[in-house]
Amino acid sequence: MSESIYTQHAELAALIRHHCPEEGLFETAIPSLFLIHHRQMTERAYNVYKPCFCCIAGGTKDIFLANEHLSYGPTDYLIASMNLPIVGQVVQASPAEPYLSFKLEFSQNQILEVLNETDLPQPARESAKRALFVGQTEQSLLDAVIRLTRLLDQPKDIPFLAPLFIKEILYKLLQGSFGTMLAQIALEGSSSYRIREVIEQITRHYEQPLRVEELAELASMSVSSFHRNFKEVTAMSPLQFQKQVRLQEARRILLSESADAADVAFRVGYESASQFSREYARMFGAPPRADIKQLKQKYGTMLKA
Known about the structure:
Layout: H1 3-19, E1 24-27, E2 33-38, E3 45-49, E4 52-58, E5 60-65, E6 68-72, E7 76-80, E8 84-92, E9 99-105, H2 108-117, E10 132-136, H3 139-150, H4 158-175, H5 179-183, H6 191-204, H7 212-218, H8 223-234, H9 238-257, H10 261-267, H11 273-284, H12 288-299
Antiparallel strand pairs: 1-2, 2-9, 3-8, 4-7, 4-9, 5-6, 5-8, 7-10
Helix pairs in contact: 1-3, 2-4, 3-4, 7-8, 10-11
């Protein structure tokens, strides 16, 4: 790591410590910006990530998408370009050198706006690619990240400057090595754009029966082409994707509402409580009642991100 990049990371780390002094996920005054602070290795956290850009100022994190594993630290950034059921775990953190992270959520419309307002070359529509990737953080990108974070100390400037700095961050990402892949989610008619629409449909209506033929029609693809493109983007089949979303939502409900497991099973779309319990235990390592009891003993009524 060069001295200038090291200095930038030190400033970003100091800003995150200042605005997120306690452990956990902190929602900031800048819409869609979150800061994260952990002083020790965490348990695996299950979340459906919205499209987001993340960079780390300290520590290391592992990310799992289906059976795939990515690791990133202070020299890297991570992008999830679509809604994805992801498992994350902080694997390197200590009180002296905590895990400190910047997370910025964005939308397809924001990507399209940057493409339309700049002289970036319009990329050709390509076949669908994985919607999760890790790149190397460059100095100019980190500079924009720091300037956005500094605005938390200047709340009166946030309404005017935050949108500009967010555009700059997205502009830098679109110029980077994964820019074409990121742009695809905003290019109407591209395979990634069409799969993104299906993913949004599944995540909005995860409790409803999944009809692959209808999803393929929504994507304007044959069933075989739809299956191939969906798996290329998400690393899983549509049914596996829906199952992960259902189980993650069930866990959230059980933890926040103290509801009966059988009732929650039906709420998230299962027709069999026993099947729900089996699949829940397979994903989280214990049946619903035992899992929630363990979580509440560790974290009270909140599951830390």
